[in-house]
Amino acid sequence: MTSELSVPELLALDREHVWHPYAPMPGVRPPYLVESAAGVRLRLAEPVDGVRELVDGMASWWSAIHGYAHPVLDEAVRDQLGRMSHVMFGGLTNEPAIRLARTLVEITPDPLQHVFLADSGSVSVEVAMKMCLQYWRSRGRPEKYRMLTWRGGYHGDTWQPMSVCDPEGGMHQLWAGALPEQVFADAPPTEFEPAYVEHLAALLGRHADEVAAVIVEPVVQNAGGMRFHSPRYLQALRELATQHGVLLVFDEIATGFGRTGELFGADHAGVSPDVMCVGKAMTGGYLTMAAALCTPEVAAGISRGEVPVLAHGPTFMGNPLAAAVANASIGLLLEQDWRGEIARIEKGLRDGLEPGRSLPGVRDVRTLGAIGVVQLDHEVDVAAATAAAVREGVWLRPFRDLVYTMPPYVTGDEDLARITSAALVAAQAG
C-alpha cells in the first residue's frame, strides 16, 4: 500500500471498481464507509449528517448474532490462525471441521447425520438440490429431476437456487426461460388453512413422478418478502413428501440458530427434513461458511449409484478458520439463555413497532423472534428510508415494500427502542 487514502478518495475508487450487491456498475449512490465495528455499533469513517456511530439493526444480513469484535470469537480466530488458516479437504481433514460436523448433527433434528460443508448459503442450496437429484438418479429414477416449492421464497443467487426463488415477485425474472422449470405452489397463507394443504397435496400428487424434492424456508420466507406462515404447513409437507416418495429440504440459512425463537425453524413443527441447509449465523458473521446436512438414507442412496460420490468439492470446503469460529459462535449461543434473549428482543420489537400500524402508508406490522417487519403499501424509497434511519443513528437496509430489522441477539433494550423508532421514521420517509 502507498499513502493513506482519504474518505472521498476511497469512495471514488469504490464507485469506479467495486460492484456492490443488487447495484449498478458504476455505482449510483455512494455507500456508507465503515471504519470499524464493536458490539452492536458500526463506526463510520466520517460523520454523515452529524452521525458517526450506527446501531446495527441488520446483524450484517442476519449473520452477526453476537455483534462485532466479540472477545470469544476474536480469540477463536487468533488461536486457529496460529495453527493453520486453511488446508484442502480432499484427502485431508482437520479438527475444527470435524467438531463442527459433530455439533451440527447434535443440534439439528434427527435423523440428519451427514454434513457437507460449503462456502456460502447459496452454495449449500446448490449442494442440497444436487444431493436430491443424484439420490434419485442413483436409484434408477432420473426422471425425478424437478423441485417443488411455494411462491414467495428465496434460496440464493446461484443458478439452481434461483430456479426455486419466486418466479415473478423475486429478483430473477431476468432468467425466465433459461433456468430449470420447477413446480410452484401458491404462497403459503399466514394462518393454517386446510384448503391450502389440499392444494399442496393435489400439486404434489400430480407431479410426484417427476419431482425429486420439495424445498421451502420453514416458518419465515425471508428475502422473498419477510412473510410468516403456520408451522403446521411443515408437518403437512413432511407427511405429503413421505406419502408421495419425494425428499423434503428445509432451507434454514436465515431461520437457523435461534432467529425465529426456536433453534431451527423445523423445531416449531417438530418435524425433520431429509436435507437441511444452514449458514449465515453459523460463524457469527465472521467468515463465510454454510452446510448441507442429510439423512443416512440420502447418503446411502447416492453411494449406491453409478457415480458413488457426491459430485461437488469447493476449494475452501471445511476451512478450519471458518470452522473454528463457527464452533465458538455456536458454543457461545448455546451456553447462554438464548431463548430468553430472543423472547426479550421479540417483545422489544413488538412494542416498538406496533405504533406503526397507525402510520399512513403502512400495510402491516409483524414480529417473530428476533425479526421485526413494517410492510408498506408501496415500494420503499431505499435511499430515502436508509438516510432517514442513519439520521436516527441506526443502520437498516429496506427492500421492496419492507422496512425490517434482524438485530444481533446482544442488542440491549435501549438500542432496540432506537432501532424500532428509526424503522418507523424510515417507513414514513420511504
From TrEMBL:
A GO term for molecular function: adenosylmethionine-8-amino-7-oxononanoate transaminase activity
Site (Participates in the substrate recognition with KAPA and in a stacking interaction with the adenine ring of SAM): Y22
Residues binding pyridoxal 5'-phosphate: G121, S122, D251, P314, T315
EC number: 2.6.1.62
Substrates-to-products reaction catalysed: (8S)-8-amino-7-oxononanoate + S-adenosyl-L-methionine = S-adenosyl-4-methylsulfanyl-2-oxobutanoate + (7R,8S)-7,8-diammoniononanoate
Cofactors named for this entry: pyridoxal 5'-phosphate
SUPFAM superfamilies xrefs: PLP-dependent transferases
UniProt keyword terms in alphabetical order: Aminotransferase, Biotin biosynthesis, Cytoplasm, Pyridoxal phosphate, S-adenosyl-L-methionine, Transferase
InterPro entries: Aminotrans_3, Aminotrans_3_PPA_site, BioA, PyrdxlP-dep_Trfase, PyrdxlP-dep_Trfase_major, PyrdxlP-dep_Trfase_small
Residues with PTM N6-(pyridoxal phosphate)lysine: K280
Pathway info: Cofactor biosynthesis; biotin biosynthesis; 7,8-diaminononanoate from 8-amino-7-oxononanoate (SAM route): step 1/1
Subcellular location: Cytoplasm
Enzyme class at the top of the EC tree: transferase
Residue numbers binding substrate: W61, Y154, K280, G313, R397
Family statement: Belongs to the class-III pyridoxal-phosphate-dependent aminotransferase family. BioA subfamily.
Family annotation (HAMAP family): BioA
Entry function: Catalyzes the transfer of the alpha-amino group from S-adenosyl-L-methionine (SAM) to 7-keto-8-aminopelargonic acid (KAPA) to form 7,8-diaminopelargonic acid (DAPA). It is the only aminotransferase known to utilize SAM as an amino donor.
Alphabetized PANTHER family for the sequence: ADENOSYLMETHIONINE-8-AMINO-7-OXONONANOATE AMINOTRANSFERASE
Subunit structure: Homodimer.
Official protein name in the record: Adenosylmethionine-8-amino-7-oxononanoate aminotransferase
